[in-house]
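New to this. Look over this protein:
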Amino acid sequence: MSKRLCKLVGSDILEDDLKSYIKLVNKLAYVCKKCGRVANNEENLCKPKKLKVKVDKKKLKGEPENEKEKVKEKVKEVKEE
């Protein structure tokens, strides 16, 4: 069985063995510059390019993006009263 996603999709793997296909694409580390598919490993793509992922630490903590500004405004309001 070929491991390049372009050929796998054409071979009915999505219908016959979906679990195996999902294992190849569930981490999305590379994108193919030719067809736009994504995969965990570069060897599964025709023309792979590594994806760069930016992580917003505030969103990971569950804080709203403008939490600091909101707190500053509330402190300012309390001081003014």
